[in-house]
Amino acid sequence: MRVYLDNSATTTAAPEVVAAMLPYFSDHMGNAQSVHSFGQQAKAALEASRRQVAALIGAAPTEIVFVSGGTEADNLAIRGIAKQFSERGRHIITTKIEHPAVLATAEALEAQGFFVTYLPVSREGLVHASEVRRAIRDETILVSVMHANNETGAIQPISEISQALAEAHEAGHRRIYLHTDAVQSVGKVKVDVDELAVDLLSMSAHKIHGPKGIGALYIRRGVKLGKILFGGHHERDRRPGTENIPAIVGFGVACELGRTSLLERMNRTRDLRDYLEQEVTRRITGVKRNGDPHQRVPNISNLTFDGVDGESLLIALDLKGVAVSTGSACSSGSLEPSHVLTAMGLPRDEVRGSLRFSFSQYSTREEVDYAISTLAEIIARLREMSPEGDTPGIRSALEGANSASTGASEIKL
Ligand code: PLP
Questions:
Q1: Are 226 and 276 within one domain?
Q2: Residue 255: which CATH number?
Q3: Which stretches of 58-145 are DSSP H helices?
Q4: 324 and 386 share one domain
Q5: How many CB atoms lie within 10 A of CB 208?
Q6: Which of 29, 330, 385, 408 is catalytic?
Q7: Does ligand 1 come within 6 angstroms of the Cβ of 148?
Q8: Among residues 231, 260, 289, which one ends one of the domains?
Q9: Within this chain, do residues 267 and 256 fall inside the same structural domain, yes or no?
C-alpha cells in the first residue's frame, strides 16, 4: 500500500485541473499578448482564471498578479515594498517561523542595509499582535506574517495584526504595509483579504491540487510595488514574462474547486486528522502534539515521538509505503533541525523526534489506518532497539535500508 500524507509539501493535481489544462498545450497554445485569435483565446482563459483565483480570496480580479509560485509571490511582496519605500524607512517586521521564501528574502534585504525584526512565537507556535505593536519603529514600512504555518498548521492572528497597524497609523505613523504568506491556508480555511485586512497575500497552486510552478500575489488596489523583474508589460506592468497559460488555467480550476467544496474538504481532512491524533495517542506512548490545538488549519498534524529520531522514522515509514515529513530542511547533505519547532521552544531531542502528517480530500480512512498501524509497529521496534531513547540516526537508517536485499519488511531499524 502507498499512502501519501505529505500534502503540505505538495498535492496531486485534481483530474478536473489536468483535463482543463491539456488543450492549452496544443489546440489553444496562443500567447496571451498576441492580437490574433489564438492570442485572444489565451487572453480570455487568462482573465477567466484570474476571476476564479480572485473569487477564492474575496479579491477583485485586477488585484491578482500571476507569478511562478509561493516563493516568487513572497519575493515580489517583500522586495517590492522594500524597493518602493526604502527612502521612507528600512525596517521590516516578520517572524521566526516563516517559510524560507520569506526568511531568506528578509536576510537578503538585511545584507542590503535593511533592518529586520524576527518576532518570537509562543509555545503553541502563535505570534501575538502585541509583539508586532511593540516592534513598530518610525522606519517600519512592512510587516510580513504568515497566515498558516507549514509545519504546525497554526493560524496567526492576521486581522489583529492589521488592527495594530491601523492603530499605529491613526496615532500618526505613516502607512505600514501588511503581507501574509497564505500558501498553506488558502483552500484549507476561509481566506478573505478584506476580513484579514491585508495589503498583499501569497498563494501557490500546487498546495491546492493545482499544477506546480504557478501562484499569485494579491496586491490591494492602490498599493505600489517596486519592480524586481524587468521585461515586457505583462500583468499590468507588475510581473513581466509570457504567461504560463496551461498552469494558470489549472490554477483557476483548482481555486474554483477549492471554493465550491471548501467546507466538505475541511470536514473530511479534520475528521481524518483528529482520528489519526486520537488513535496515535491511544496506541503509542510518549506522543505530544505540536502547535495550537484550536487555531489551526484542519489538514496538518505535527507530532513528537519521545525517544525516537524523526528522520529514521520517516525513512522506515517510507520503506513501508507511507510518505510523511519532518520539519528539517535537508539541503546539501546537512540536516537542520526545524526552525519552527525550535522557535516554539521545543528541546532539541523533541524537535528531532517530530513528524508532520498532512491530509487532502483524497486521503482515506483506510490509508490513515495503515499509517497508524505501521507507525505503531516501527516505533515499538525503534524503542526496543534503543530503550535509552537514542534511536539510530539517519545514516544508520539509510545503511539499514541499503543493506536490505529482500524488501522493506526485512529491514531492521
Ligand atoms: N510559503 C509556504 C508557507 C510554503 O509552505 C511554501 C511551500 O512549501 C512556499 C511558501 C513556497 O511555495 P512554492 O513551492 O509555490 O514556491
A1: no
A2: 3.40.640.10
A3: 70-85, 100-111, 129-135
A4: yes
A5: 25
A6: 330
A7: no
A8: 260
A9: no
Q: Is 181 in the pocket of ligand 1 (CB under 6 A)?
A: yes
Q: Would you say the CB of residue 147 lies under 6 angstroms from ligand 1?
A: no
- DSSP state letter for 184: T
67-105 confidence digits (pLDDT tens):
999 999 999 999 999 999 999 999 999 999 999 999 999
Pocket mutation for ligand 1, best pick of 204, 206, 212, 326 (most atoms within 8 Å of C-beta): 204
224 and 355 in a single domain? The answer is: no
Reported pTM: 0.93
Share of the chain above pLDDT 90, in %: 90
Decide which of 201, 230, 260 is a domain's last residue: 260
Q: Is the pLDDT of residue 64 over 60?
A: yes
* Predicted confidence (pLDDT) at residue 393 exceeds the cutoff of 60: no
**Total number of residues shown for the chain:** 413
- 255 is an active site residue: no
**If you measure from the C-alpha of residue 29 to the centroid of ligand 1, how many angstroms do you get, rounded to a whole number?**
28
CB neighbourhood size of 228 (10 A): 15
pLDDT value at 274 more than 50: yes
Among 183, 296, 358, which is best to mutate for testing ligand 1, by the most ligand atoms less than 8 A from CB? Answer: 183
**In sequence order, which residues have a C-beta less than 8 Å from that of residue 138 and are 6 or more positions away?**
89, 173
Averaged confidence pLDDT in the chain? 93
- Asked if 317 and 323 touch (Cβ cutoff 8 Å), the reply is yes
